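Review form for a predicted model. The reviewer records the input and the model, then writes brief findings.
Reviewer: anonymous (R2)
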Amino acid sequence: MQKQFDAIVIGGGPAGATSAAVLAQAGWNVAIIEQKEFPRRKVCGEFLSLTNWPVLEQLGLDRAVQTCAGPEVTHMAVFTGSRAIRAELPMAYGRPGHRGRALTRDVLDTLLMERSKALGATIIQPVKVRAVIRESDGFSCELESRETRETSRITSKIMIAANGSWEANPLGEAPKKAPRGSDLFGFKAHFRNAHLPDGLMPLLSFDDGYGGMVHCQDGLTSLSCCVTRKRLSQLRQQTDAGAGEQLLEHIRRTCPAIIPVLKDAVREGPWLSAGPLQTGIRPRYTPNVFYVGNAAAEAHPVIAEGISIAIQSGWMMASMLVPAKERLDDQLHIDSIGRAYSDAWSRAFSTRIRSSALIAHWAMRPWLVQLACPVFERWPRVLNWCAEMAGKASLSFQPRETLTKVAQ
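Model under review:
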């Protein structure tokens, strides 16, 4: 295996694979370090907003995603109590055939990883990063194979952190937070024969949690949700059923609008769970280390923008870093790109992150949601505006303009 790279990407999910693909496409010598073997399932809402089409087109993946993904999502809804209020999703960028769609993570992540490999990236998986050591001329990354336990060492000038927010960060462990009753845990399952109307993606509001549903590929319907640690502990004391089934019964009880949707549904595969979620904004750059995806920030899943922020932040960062290939030893230049990326990231994504927190805390209190229902019923445009604030209408950054500013 090659030992020296221009950049090493830790994490092969949407953010990491997109970053590596853009850099490899521009001639960079880049490696992706991933601890799991693909394909693999993950807790995720699995929705790809229409704002991702420019990135997918640039990477040559738009047709593959259209072929694999579920039907176009044209409408959103709020399910609270027995009420279901619908509104059309905004389409500022989209065009026929380019609405938002859902694609399971085992398929999406594999497509992105294979594309980055086809563009020239080196894929190293499944391996564990034992240590990242900062040296005078870059970084040394110590790896351990999860299959053979053999160790190896590779080096690079640039590190890109694209690891999940609840995974250990080999570039510096964040202070661990004490467990709180308000901590959120994520759950996901797939169902067949669900009666979810075509093109509809509802937000589920239930006591101490929220969720969403969407049609993904092969006739499956994805149900993903978050619930507080306190509520989850209470549910576990009530029955001997698994946590996922306990949570589903809680959703049926406190959000009965979902009952007709799941009347004939049959779960396919096990429930997946993860957490606690580490929502919020973190540093996007430290010297020669760029953070993308959940390593940079995590939005509450209530707005279904996690994959979009991951892909778009990876694309943004890599696009800005591409011209620096011949100046990797110029610390001032790399630092200027890091500052520019951090600023551009804030302009593009900070509103989504902060609005997701507000919407999440609102959605976890059904009585508040029900107070807003008369407004939504009379003025559905309010829901449309909320979707625009969450980033579902158009790209909030222009890579070419940002690159020009960096060059100047």
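Findings: The CA atoms of residues 43 and 188 lie 6 Å apart.
Further findings: DSSP finds eleven helices and 19 strands in the chain.
Recommendation: see findings above.
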